[in-house]
Give the backbone structure.
Amino acid sequence: MANNLLKGKRGIIFGALNDQSIAWKVAERAHEEGAVFVLTNAPIAMRMGEINNLATKTNSQVIPADATNVEEIDHLVAQSMEILGGKIDFVLHSIGMSPNVRKGKHYTESNYGYYNQTMDVSAMSLHKTLASLYKQDAMNEWGSVVALSYIAAQRIFPDYNDMADAKSLLESIARSFGYHYGIKKKVRVNTISQSPTVTTAGQGIKGFKEFINFSEQMSPLGNASGLACADYCVSMFSDLTRYVTMQNLFHDGGFSNTGVTQGVIERFGEE
């Protein structure tokens, strides 16, 4: 049910690929809540996905941009303000990619060229985006930037590989830039650590089905869906969460604070 939580707000949404993407669901919900925004993704991802269908559905424009390229990010930010008619109120960073994962490289045998790409695409891109917004004074006061993370930033999930390192860096950038942006413009920067969610990117991780099943068994409320995550993002973009910043917010049905559940104990007791 729409409540106009984002009425009059302008945004930039990174990372929508297809209707499995959390970014896609965030765009749909933000549109329902009255926001206007531009959509962006890397040109190669746009060729693979269906972002133009989402643009039509949400009356949005698409601006191709490589999130690792500072000049393209600068252009994205400037063009977004021109298209939307003013400064930005919210940004979703939903970007993650690991060549080591795609190529099946074990963490202990990482290709460091690939590793650098993982860090650049999945984490440094947040810093580059924030720096461009900051430099161009593109955010309204009390604006909100949210980046999507995962609990592998804090705990070992062996097959998550170097993406775990990237998420750790992502969360650190949110804290560090959030401090400076908060002082300068009262802009808040947070990460959301979401339950494992069926997306095109997620399914590329070895053992992903097992990740999801285990998390479902370990979470008192069960796994949070992509749509539920979109709702949470909308709340973080709204004025209802003005004093939340520099946080990593777990949106995982209680998984992050659960040592073990009775159901898991019983399964280990099975012969």
Summary: The beta strands are 10-14, 36-40, 61-62, 88-93, 139-149, 188-194, 248-251. The first strand starts at residue 10 and ends at 14.
